[in-house]
Amino acid sequence: MNMLEFNGQRYLDGRASDPRELAWMRGAPPPADKRITFDSDCFRTFPQIRWSLSHMRELTATVNVWRGPGAPSHFERHDRTSEIDALAFTDAHGRPRRFEEALFDTYADGMVVLHRGRIVYERYFGALEPHLPHACFSVSKSYAGTLTAAFVHEGVLDDSKTIPHYLPELRGTAWQDATLRQVMDMQTGLAYTEDYDDERSSVWQYVRACGRRPKPAGYAGPTTMSDFLRTVRKQGAHGETFDYKSVNTDVMAWVMARATGRSLAQLLHERLWTPLGCEEDGYIEIDPVGMPAAGGGLSVSLRDLARFGELMRCEGVWKGKQLVPASVVHDVQKGHHPAKLSDGSYRSQWWVTHNELGAVEARGIHGQRLYIAPDAEMVVARFASHPLASAEAGDIITMPQMLALGRMLRG
């Protein structure tokens, strides 16, 4: 399939459907003839995916990430909406664009822009509202990776140890001789494929085992995430190449839970949600026995995502308290083995651009993005419902858009 086309429609030629035209998606559930469940193919049709991404806990099993009993932290505001909406830039195909136009052509559900910790831009579209958590997909990895790296810094975890040191259950699997650091940086050799457009891909076997997709008649395969992980075998050497596989994040989070005796939801609540003063509870999708989908199951509100980005921009400090070790943030920003990626590097489940803004990113399928640009004192949190899972199509617009915005705010 051409990455620029979907069901015969083009999404990067200026004729993408304007989300404002789909009135029924403005907060209300779809009509009966469009109502979906997580068992249906909700990742194929734009109107369906747009509603579902702000209502994931209505479609699948989840566990709550409590924000705590205190009042939410306060963001100061300095509105620059008109200026930002009018910002002109050129996309990667050489097409002139305006910032606001780009929001619709990337199917944004909402965006918050912070500059020096103040909200300068905040907009919502379609089904998303300020109080609603939205699916993060693989942005979830950066939350889990940051916590894991913090526990390594604190000596709770040793990233040079192999995975069976913490999880004897994974002896004889692909992770038999993989170190925790190799897992954290996606440098493992796994006989596992992650192609969302191919129903035969390993990722679909994985989501069926986790209960996130229907099992076919006569199914006799794994029925939990841990059962599935025990079936994954090694393919190639560990530590030699970058190979992005979401199951690595689930293994990493399992290690963290085993070492701390705390679930991922508890750790997020204790280490991030409560001390950040998040406005809303988050939640994480879980498998039939309660194991969290750490690689892509987190849902958070847009402002709370921005809070996490601001924490990382400020070297792990929030309201005068060091919530994440500064050395962890510096290590992420420095990146690791840049030669192994054509357009940056990857460290502790973060994408490192090495661009002029010093930007690091958390990315998720269908357009989720947390863009942190220290050299522009900027954080951008964006949720989206692009009909295509891959970031490739949206990045043609998004990467130049973020760079142009950072240059403007940097002055």
Question: Describe it for me?
Answer:
With 411 residues, the chain is of the alpha+beta class. The chain has a single domain, classed as Beta-lactamase, CATH 3.40.710. 30% of the residues lie in helices and 16% in strands. It is built from 13 helices and 17 strands. It has a 7-stranded antiparallel beta sheet with strand order 7-6-17-16-15-14-13, with helices on both faces. Helix 4 crosses helix 9.
Q: What's the topology here?
A:
Blueprint: E1 5-6, E2 9-10, H1 46-52, E3 62-65, H2 81-85, E4 88-90, E5 96-98, H3 99-105, E6 108-115, E7 118-124, E8 134-135, H4 139-153, H5 163-166, H6 180-184, H7 202-209, H8 225-229, H9 246-260, H10 264-276, E9 282-285, E10 298-300, H11 302-313, E11 317-318, E12 321-322, H12 326-334, E13 345-347, E14 350-352, E15 360-364, E16 368-373, E17 378-384, H13 392-410
Antiparallel strand pairs: 1-2, 3-9, 4-5, 6-7, 6-17, 8-10, 9-10, 11-12, 13-14, 14-15, 15-16, 16-17
Helix pairs in contact: 4-9
CATH topology name: Beta-lactamase
What number of structural domains do the residues give? 1
CATH level 1 class label = Alpha Beta
Percent of residues in helices comes to: 25-40%
> What is the 3D form?
globular
Indicate the CATH architecture.
Answer: 3-Layer(aba) Sandwich
Q: What is the alpha-carbon Rg in Å?
A: 20 Å
Spatially, the strands of the biggest sheet line up as: 7-6-17-16-15-14-13
Q: Give the DSSP E fraction (strand runs of 2 or more residues).
A: 15-25%
Estimate the mean pLDDT confidence. 88
Low-confidence stretches: 1-44
Quickly give the structural class.
alpha+beta
Order of SSEs, N→C? EEHEHEEHEEEHHHHHHHEEHEEHEEEEEH
